[in-house]
Amino acid sequence: MTASVVTIVYVNDAPAAARFYGDLLGMSPSFETPGYITFDLGPGADLALWSGQFENLAPDVPRTSEVCLAIDGGSDQLDVIFGQWQSKGVTILKEPHDAGFGRTFLAADPDGNRIRVAPQD
Fold this sequence. Notes:
There is one protein chain. Helices cover 21% and strands 42% of the residues. The protein has a four-stranded mixed beta sheet. The protein has two helices and eight strands; from the N terminus they run E-H-E-E-E-E-H-E-E-E. A hairpin with a 5-residue loop joins strand 7 and strand 8. With 121 residues, the protein is an alpha/beta fold. Pfam families: Glyoxalase.
């Protein structure tokens, strides 16, 4: 059986969200419709942006999940990414700090969805 994991992020405007995530990830979508856009993150993993499922998503509504970008390169690479995201004006929810699994920081997309950057296991 072949399986893949698709992480779905609900957004107000899928094309706008795709531009935001495409810029952060340095990639183009692998599939696009007006309200559903995906990014192929590698074998068995996709990120999907889906609009129209909820009306007027607001950034101030608490979120209980995160998209986690697990990176290679350790703390130095994490700090480089943090600096790049700050210079792009990405909303930072929690600056780089040490957690039980390593150095990490937390950001948000324009719809308030949480994005964690952390070291790859």
